[in-house]
Specification:
Length: 321
């Protein structure tokens, strides 16, 4: 029998790149966009005029903090668990309000990066010193498993920023099922979701004039060059975002402008690109009330209410089980 040994990979990034660039069509998982430089570029994206998502969600939380707080608050207090907390800019709107109201709660930001958690804890200590913070380092799955058995008091799970959009709808159902299974009756799940809208507005959000999103996307090539000893030429690729208003999928690609071959030395791999061949790098799925109702139904979550801006650009949904 001809048995070939599967290659051993030093890092999850190495494995994803090997598998993604040896398949057709080529792809790389969007989670690898976020190295140190990627985090920095994403911070810049959130301040871009075209990238409306962050500002709209901030506005929704600011305007409705009282009502949202009333939903979260409970007699025995609550634990506020945030998946992918980042710099916590939007969450701080809620935390400040909870402090003013003297709510009995603890804030548990979850992130894979210890560095992100340390920075967040430090900024909270300076800006809202009263908040009791208990950082949880790990993947969402690890932390959700850990929290599933915790029944001492009400849990409110936050998932802001339309991060759900970076999963395909099928992946989103699987993820929301995990959330639902970590919840007990009375617990809540609060999720921010970018909505279907004028296709041009969505497309512009992923194709800003200053080229920050292009740099963010191409940072994957920079990362492969550095971490996997590859020789990608950044000028041989164009950043190409697309939006399909029927499915709600905004997808980003890197498109090779010429036929060429790239060496990825750490993987002992030669990757051939045809002229105009693509690498799919990200999905930013947009939803509406109908597709959110479908997601919730599939995942076993019950939608209890939602808040939006005037034009329904962005919505924050509250679910229970
Ligand atoms: C983090 N995530 C929700 C962003 C999005 O809109 O999909 C990431 C992003 N990619 C390009 N611009 C922003």
């Amino acid at each position: 029998m001809n048995q070939t040994k599967p290659p051993e990979f030093k890092t999850p990034f190495a494995e994803d790149v090997f598998k993604g660039l040896t398949s057709y069509p080529k792809k790389i998982s969007s989670k690898f966009l976020y190295d140190e430089k990627g985090d920095e570029l994403f911070q810049k994206i959130m301040d871009l005029p075209e990238y409306y998502l962050t500002g709209k969600e901030y506005q929704i939380l600011m305007r409705n903090r009282e009502e949202i707080g009333n939903e979260f608050a409970s007699f025995e207090g609550f634990d506020l668990i945030e998946l992918g907390a980042g710099d916590g800019k939007k969450t701080k709107v809620l935390l400040r309000h909870f402090e003013e109201k003297n709510y009995d709660y603890k804030y548990l930001p979850v992130d894979i990066s210890r560095n992100v958690l340390d920075q967040l804890s430090e900024s909270l200590e300076q800006e809202i010193p009263g908040v009791e913070v208990s950082p949880q380092q790990g993947t969402y799955a690890m932390v959700l498993n850990r929290l599933a058995d915790y029944r001492e008091r009400k849990k409110v799970i936050l998932f802001l920023g339309s991060n759900i959009g970076n999963l395909t709808p099928e992946e989103a159902v699987a993820f929301l099922k995990k959330i639902a299974s970590a919840m007990n009756p009375g617990d809540m799940f609060f999720m921010g979701v970018d909505q279907k809208k004028d296709p041009q507005v969505i497309l512009d959000a992923y194709n800003d004039k200053a080229g920050v999103t292009e740099a963010f996307n191409k940072n994957l090539l920079v990362r492969m060059n550095r971490e996997l000893e590859a020789d990608f030429d950044l000028d041989a690729f164009v950043h190409w975002p697309l939006y399909n208003p029927e499915t709600g999928a905004a997808k980003s690609y890197l498109v090779s402008t010429k036929e060429h071959t790239v060496q990825i030395n750490a993987l002992n791999l030669e990757v051939h690109f045809q002229k105009w061949e693509t690498i799919h790098t990200e999905v930013s799925q947009k939803y509406d009330d109908t597709s959110i109702a479908w997601l919730a139904e599939e995942a076993g979550l019950k939608l209890s209410r939602s808040w939006a801006d005037k034009e329904n650009t962005f919505k924050n949904y509250l679910f229970q089980i």
